[in-house]
Amino acid sequence: MVTILRIGGSVIASSRNPKPVIQYADLLRKLKVKKRGVIAVVGGGKLARQFINLGRKLGLDEVSQDWLAIHISRLYALLLTLKLGEDGIGVVPTSIEEAIKMSRADKIVVMGGLEPGMTTDTVAARLAEETSSRLLVKATDRSGIYNKDPARYPDAVKLAEVSYGKLSEILEINQHEAGIQQILDPVAIGILSEAGVKTVVVDGKYPENILRAIAGERLGTTVTT
Prior knowledge:
Elements (H helix, E strand, L loop, with lengths): L2 E5 L1 H4 L6 H16 L3 E5 L2 H13 L4 H23 L11 H8 L4 E4 L8 H11 L4 E6 L4 E2 L11 E2 L1 E3 H7 L15 H10 L2 E6 L4 H7 L6 E4 L1
Parallel strand pairs: 1-2, 1-4, 2-3, 4-8, 7-9
Antiparallel strand pairs: 5-6, 8-9
Helix pairs in contact: 2-4, 3-4, 6-8, 7-8
């Protein structure tokens, strides 16, 4: 069984702080011992959005803006892969098929974005679908999913459980856009719902939360059909 993780750029993509990369490399090694096959999908975080904004100011179209973000996410994926040393596959896959094939080599696979119009959320969702995984764990900079944006609304309430249908109603953006900053993107929600994959969103500032979620402990927010 392949374990699919989505590690948010807000958690790991810090160009100045090596600690999250070290912590997540250690986490992935622990998962490798427990499970056969680990694929982690890493976002580009703040740096990716900075490049998107720069591209926008230069008059680049949305496809070009997406490509900038994709390459930033792949750069962070490469950083984590290199930190894994012999436990990692050594390269960053650029397709779903390549990632799944690499995961069979008893090595940890880390990847970023794939193509314009597809966020790293969608990459993780497609991996979960193609590997028939029943669980996707996403590590973010929040403790879970809220009924409204906690950064804007102090009275926002964290949800212990929510359906994909209800989540689509809560989230403000219902179509892809470059640099989309949302707990799950709308395309990924559709894929995960259709495939019947359970998603658990946890506070990624504490990587051990991922192990706890995989073990079945109730924390963060669980999203189901």
